[in-house]
């Protein structure tokens, strides 16, 4: 029997690995003043900084980690207005006009990316591609037909097909023509360079923990420094600043997985996603002159479901069943946030606080949603308004069906709050092998224990510092993930992703005296 290619032992994003010259910046060491303070160095934050710098606005951008190491560094980087099967749903929920606005906004985002590539001469493997949703399930054929009718109402250039260029089993497919893809980090590192030349100050390893609201709001950092601004833009994926807006209860986090694989066969072009579950997304990029296929999918709520390494294995099995896999040099995962009505939250973060903005809830379509967020927030800062502000307003409220979703998100949280506290692993610390983790009792208390490859043990209190749910071990990424609102912690306890702001406390593994 021919042995199947293995997945890599450690996750690594192809995007980050293939950009050798990632920009690096120092930590903020003092209190400063600026016009616009941006928190978050992903596509939304960096594009906002770039657009504002072109308008001669003085900008400071802070990132808790390194720039481009969050969801933007781990995306599949499709630049498309085809955000799954969504337009019929948007027409039903919001009406034709708003659905059309969403399509126009995402198309404008695509054009803005193209404009930046042209004006800065960026070499970022940008290619025009058609985008396909396909299905091999009878249940989804009529949904694709209904979605096609929605496309027609919105005058989207599209076709309903019974065959697509990619050789996968299917019964129907819907193509949206003239979409695109690129290498997001090659694109964004150029935007960072240009923004820096225009005077934007970037700081890394600088965690924003609060905003002191005022006519001139101040971003407060973990080290106690303040960035006093005229406007604050919170583009930190999960908003670190909530102020009774309850973003954690109005969005849910999902993880998804990507394999970067080399195949024996030719790729016919195009970007593909299936309609049914489990999700399978396929596109390619270039690795040393060869095609690298990006096979994505396996979404699930953060901290819930099976061992995360099994999700990578499921993608590997799919790739092996469908194609001739030669090698799998990369695997990585990403976390995305979806709002209760599926529209991102972009605009004024909280009622009554006019100069603090938020951009979040991009529902896996961060390249276009992050770019339009940057345009909207730039227009708000420079002109005081944006034509899209009502559509994306974070303070909007739709009674139905969002209320049901709101209730179900929070009922799910309540379930995990209780369930997690009662669950323990079956292994003690002595039984752990290197690279493995367990949840056990240490001195009578629940503790998460990880043993690294040198057999060094790290024990943490597993109670999430956000709202006290119990974190679960993520074997694929070697992190502790919270099933309630998606906070993630390193095996040393540091916060990798909010809403939690404080690390998990370290537990002493020595017995009580
Ligand atoms: Fe809210 Fe953990 S993220 S309780």
UniProtKB/TrEMBL annotation:
Residues 424-513 form the Rieske domain. Keywords: 2Fe-2S, Disulfide bond, Iron, Iron-sulfur, Metal-binding. GO terms for molecular function: 2 iron, 2 sulfur cluster binding; metal ion binding; monooxygenase activity; oxidoreductase activity, acting on paired donors, with incorporation or reduction of molecular oxygen. GO terms for cellular component: cytoplasm; membrane. InterPro entries: FAD-dep_OxRdtase, FAD/NAD-bd_sf, Rieske_2Fe-2S, Rieske_2Fe-2S_sf, Rieske_Fe-S_prot_C, YhfW_C. This is Glycine/D-amino acid oxidase. It comes from Oceanobacillus limi. SUPFAM superfamilies: ISP domain, Nucleotide-binding domain.
């Amino acid at each position: 029997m021919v042995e199947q290619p293995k997945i890599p032992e450690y996750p690594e994003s192809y995007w980050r690995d293939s950009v050798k010259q990632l920009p690096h910046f120092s930590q903020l060491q003092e209190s400063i003043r600026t016009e616009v303070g941006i928190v978050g160095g992903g596509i939304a934050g960096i594009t906002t900084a770039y657009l504002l710098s072109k308008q001669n606005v003085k900008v400071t951008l802070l990132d808790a980690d390194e720039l481009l190491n969050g969801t933007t560094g781990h995306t599949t980087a499709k630049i498309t207005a085809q955000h799954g099967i969504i337009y019929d749903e948007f027409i039903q929920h919001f009406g034709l006009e708003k659905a059309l606005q969403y399509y126009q906004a995402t198309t404008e985002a695509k054009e803005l990316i193209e404009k930046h590539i042209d004006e800065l001469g960026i070499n970022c493997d940008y290619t025009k591609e058609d985008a396909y949703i396909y299905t091999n399930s009878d249940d989804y054929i009529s949904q694709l037909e209904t979605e096609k009718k929605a496309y027609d109402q919105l005058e989207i250039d599209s076709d309903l097909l019974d065959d697509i260029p990619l050789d996968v089993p299917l019964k129907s497919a819907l193509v949206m023509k003239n979409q695109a893809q690129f290498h997001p980090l090659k694109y964004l590192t150029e935007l960072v360079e240009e923004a820096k030349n225009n005077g934007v100050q970037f700081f890394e390893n600088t965690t924003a923990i609060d905003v002191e609201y005022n006519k001139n709001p101040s971003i407060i950092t973990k080290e106690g420094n303040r960035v006093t601004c005229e406007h604050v833009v919170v583009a930190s994926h999960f908003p670190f600043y909530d102020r009774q807006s309850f973003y954690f209860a109005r969005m849910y986090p999902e993880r998804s997985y990507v394999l970067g694989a080399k195949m024996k066969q030719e790729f016919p072009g195009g970007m593909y996603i299936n309609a049914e579950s489990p999700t399978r997304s396929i596109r390619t990029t270039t690795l040393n002159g060869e095609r690298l296929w990006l096979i994505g999918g396996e979404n699930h709520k953060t901290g819930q479901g099976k061992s995360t390494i099994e999700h990578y294995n499921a993608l590997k099995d799919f790739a092996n069943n469908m194609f001739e896999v030669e090698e799998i040099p990369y695997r990585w995962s990403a976390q995305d946030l979806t709002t209760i009505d599926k529209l991102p939250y972009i605009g004024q973060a909280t009622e009554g606080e006019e100069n603090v903005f938020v951009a979040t809830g991009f529902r896996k379509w961060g390249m276009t949603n992050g770019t339009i967020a940057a345009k909207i927030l730039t227009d708000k800062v420079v002109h005081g308004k944006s034509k899209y502000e009502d559509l994306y307003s974070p303070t909007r409220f739709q009674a139905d069906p969002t209320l049901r979703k709101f209730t179900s998100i929070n009922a799910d949280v309540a379930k995990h709050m209780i369930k997690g506290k009662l669950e323990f692993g079956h292994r003690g610390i002595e039984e752990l092998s290197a690279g493995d983790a367990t949840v056990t009792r240490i001195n009578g208390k629940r503790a998460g224990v990880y043993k690294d490859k040198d057999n060094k043990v790290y024990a943490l209190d597993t109670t999430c510092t956000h709202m006290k749910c119990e974190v679960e071990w993520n074997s694929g990424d070697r992190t502790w993930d919270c099933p309630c609102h998606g906070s993630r912690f390193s095996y040393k306890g540091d916060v990798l992703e909010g809403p939690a702001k404080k690390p998990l406390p370290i537990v002493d593994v020595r017995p009580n005296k």
